[in-house]
Amino acid sequence: SAVISQKPSRDICQRGTSLTIQCQVDSQVTMMFWYRQQPGQSLTLIATANQGSEATYESGFVIDKFPISRPNLTFSTLTVSNMSPEDSSIYLCSGRRGGATNEKLFFGSGTQLSVL
Amino acid sequence: SQQGEEDPQALSIQEGENATMNCSYKTSINNLQWYRQNSGRGLVHLILIRSNEREKHSGRLRVTLDTSKKSSSLLITASRAADTASYFCATDGWAGSYQLTFGKGTKLSVIP
Question: Class of A12-97 per CATH?
Answer without folding.
Answer: mainly beta
